[in-house]
Amino acid sequence: MRVAGALRVPGDKSISHRALMLGALGTGPSRVRGILQSLDVHSTAGVLRALGVAVPALGEEIVIDGVGLRGLRAGAADLECGNSGTTTRLLAGIVAGSALSGRFVGDASLSRRPMGRIARPLAAMGARFEFGRSGDGLPMTVHGGPLRGLTWHMETASAQVKSAILLAGLVGDVPAEVHEVERTRDHTERMLVGRGVDLRVEGNAVTLVPAARLDAADQLVPGDPSSAAFFAALAAIADDGELALHDVCINPTRAGAFEVLRRMGAQVRYQDARVEGGEEVATVVVSPGMLRGAVIEGRDVPSLVDELPVLACVAACATGETRVTGAAELRVKESDRIKAIVNNLRAVGAEAEELPDGFVVRGTGRRPFAGAVATHADHRIAMAFGVLGVVPGSAITVDDPACAAVSFPTFWKELSRVVV
Ligand code: S3P
Description:
Elements: E1 2-7, H1 13-25, E2 27-33, H2 39-50, E3 61-67, E4 79-80, H3 85-96, E5 101-105, H4 108-111, H5 116-125, E6 128-131, E7 140-143, E8 150-153, H6 159-172, E9 176-179, H7 187-194, E10 199-202, E11 205-208, E12 219-220, H8 225-237, E13 240-249, H9 256-264, E14 267-276, E15 279-287, E16 295-296, H10 308-317, E17 319-324, H11 337-347, E18 351-355, E19 358-364, E20 370-373, H12 379-389, E21 395-398, H13 411-418
Parallel strand pairs: 1-13, 2-12, 4-5, 8-9, 16-17, 20-21
Antiparallel strand pairs: 2-3, 5-7, 6-7, 9-11, 10-11, 13-15, 14-15, 17-19, 18-19
């Protein structure tokens, strides 16, 4: 298989959610360029509209008229979050800091995901939570109210939980201090500083000082490294050729998959590295190499947590064992990704085994692969096995390819374009 060409993957999902939320909370108009137009980001736009913000239809360039830190209004409608954990958890923080209540609902996958992890710190700040029969899943009603400051020691590495606490402190006008287990993606911190907030990062601790207002700011959204990773993986397992992925965010808290592909033997170069929109950005150029297994441990996981499905597929094409540990968080993503990765690798003829907090893939360098993949409506499982499916001679069927639209609506079109 030969790959060739260049592509610009869609805008970063994490930054797109935050650009909408912080635009909404800003004082005056904020321009956003290159926002990801995917189902998850539409969910954030929809919830903000339900809270009284005039978010325009998403497009290449949009302007959001911010309502200010205290300008959100409660409507009668449920807050529909679809499949999006980031929408739910960050906006729960925002509602917790506001003088209003909101009932968060979502699809079957999101409804099963744990919300206790945000409810505990936000309740300690003074917000109230009501859960249905599901325990700590959706539907979840958040009653915001006068908050008190919080110092919180995180139980798991989660940028969503960290961001929920910081946003609650910002909107609720109280100090917030979060101590992380491992440094997770820091877009919220960068974007708050860029909007005039006094926020300090020291080691694994982030401290937010209350702010009277949030400045409006223009945001350029770089390409999503989590989407780019599928094409980097494709180039790594190809027999020949090269792919150039333009304008990819290579923020060190996000770029772990590129490092691992390099460790596994692929050629990965950053060209034209620069800072744009407050983020490190580069053209990531990837070509194949003799692939060998890799060890991925807990401290590596936050910077590649969403890329583990596709790295597992690369591991199946490599020679030797790939062992991933310290990744129990995978069990509470859009699906139980440890089970989904291992069961689907086995279903297509690869050797893999579950660990409580990760998995092992025994690569034989043998290919192609054939079998039926069950995505469990998980976009990253669908795309990871889509990459494996283009290995010549493979016969992989993916039960729900359309679920890629959660984060990467043009994935299948781009995939067929770059394989020559
Ligand atoms: C995200 C944080 C991560 C990641 C998710 C997006 C974010 O989740 O998996 O896709 O935008 O903050 P956790 O906070 O649960 O680790």
